[in-house]
Amino acid sequence: MNLEQLDRHLAEQIESRRPYDGIAAMAKHATARQSVWWGCSCGWFLWRPIPAAADDASLGIVSRWVFEGDDEYRRLAATRAELPEAGCCKWLLKAVVNSGGRLEIPDRPAAQPTPDIAGKLVEGFLHQLLAKAPPVKRMETAQTFVAIARQTLAEPLPTFPANASGPASASPSAPANVAAAGPMTPIPTEA
């Protein structure tokens, strides 16, 4: 399924009120970077205006990997995913680690192959977020997650501007990252 077909499929899932099918399709067919950015955007949407400090730190590592694709952020994500304060962001962090390609991680025996299972891990992260939502809001929240998926496909993925000094200068919180990357506002759903 190419990205145009995926976008049409997601629109159909929103229209037919089957967001869980849309979430599964996005997880299966989007690239690792698209999936991870989608997960970050959904986390920021749910935890707005600013996530708890532990979640903000995890989302910061993850979003910086989207900006640069640097293996150093994959290593940071691997370390952070093992900490108890990673919470449900553990799945998003593991998506970065397992975004494809070999990865040297200090204090581990050898470079381990990392299959591209990022989409499935992001899907797990989103289901964790949905499980924490009030039951009467889960369908609406899932619909919003699919709408955010469509935005992720429609807009270019974020990168640091040429004049930025790099990821260390960026705040891990959503407003600074989104400002650096361009607008990424969720599509509101009807109440």
Can you describe what's shown?
This protein is mostly helical and 191 residues long. The chain is 60% helix and 2% strand. It is built from 9 helices and 2 strands. The protein has helices at residues 3-15, 19-29, 32-46, 53-68, 71-81, 89-97, 118-132, 138-154, 174-181, and strands spanning 102-103, 112-113. The chain has a two-stranded antiparallel sheet with strand order 1-2. Strand 1 and strand 2 form a beta hairpin. Helix 1 runs antiparallel to helix 8, helix 2 packs antiparallel against helix 7 and helix 4 packs parallel to helix 6 (89-97). The longest helix is centred in the last third of the chain and has 17 residues, at 138-154.
The parts where pLDDT drops under 50 for at least 5 residues are: 165-191
Gap between N and C termini = 32 Å
The radius of gyration is 16 Å
* Oligomeric description of these chains: single chain
Tell me the major beta sheet: 2 strands, antiparallel
How much β-strand is present in the residues? Answer: under 5%
Class by alpha and beta content: mainly alpha
- Summed up, the helix count is 9
Please tell me what the overall shape is.
globular
Order of helices and strands: HHHHHHEEHHH
Mean pLDDT: 81
Number of DSSP-assigned strands: 2
The percentage helix is 55-70%
Instruction: Give the strand line-up of the largest sheet.
Output: 1-2
